[in-house]
Amino acid sequence: MGLPEPPPLGASALPPETYREQTVVVTGGGTGLGRAIALEFGRLGARLAILSRSEEHRNAGVAALEEIGARAIGVACDIRDPEAVAGAFAEVESGLGAPDVLINNAAGNFPVPAEDLSPNGWRAVVDIVLNGTFHCSREAGRRWIGAGRGGAILNIGASYAWTGGPGFAHSAAAKAGVKNLTETLAVEWGPYGIRVNGLVPGLFPHADETEDIKGVPGRGAGDEEQSCPAGRTGRTRELGWAATFLCSPYAGYVTGHTLVVDGANWQRRAMRMPAFVPIREQLGKDPFEG
Hints:
The protein is an alpha/beta fold. The protein is built from 10 helices and 7 strands. The protein has helices spanning 32-43, 55-67, 82-96, 119-147, 160-163, 169-189, 211-214, 224-227, 236-246, 279-282; strands at 23-27, 47-52, 72-76, 101-104, 151-156, 194-201, 258-261.
């Protein structure tokens, strides 16, 4: 039977105007799970700033938000560059008002055996996922502390921050850093009224998955629901609901916590483990030749 389907799209556990007159910044919020999160904030009255390097992605996010009646702007930003981040936050404040919530969602990832991972590939992913999260958090934190006002930060993580992630050494290491950063900043910035939490998505199929991820052998073969204890994959609105709750006044005493929304999938264990398949074989790679 599995877990029941969630309430329909458009439903919410929070009051309709929970985020009225608040500005929410979502990095990478123009596509995929970032856009799903942004939409739920928009439905609750927030003004949205979509930060992305891609004009196409920014436009897509803004269009989706305007379609539901939310106010939104797209802001060009390379989160790897601290000066670009500072400029983007200044543009958000000028266009929508000072940010109240920051969603660190932007990420980079591709499957690769560690022995094939180039230093540049490692650096690219860590720079976006870990350094970008820090640059944006630092910018928000300094602004809030300087102004004497609180705020909420939500960092999008991954379950392999706990377990390791064969085939994703770069992303797994970066996400582990994000988890630790979440916990560290929650303690440091609690006295300033700033809450910092994490949110880990499980299997949430969506149309904007990258070609690298779509190309993983067996991906999208239709057996994802059978692989999850919940008996189904996640619906993107469920991630949005979790995000809006964690950043809301109703979670005012929740900070330093990472919430996993994955139908218990990452905790799954078998009494007898299946045969081990090395990651090169899983990815259909030829033997390493050096």
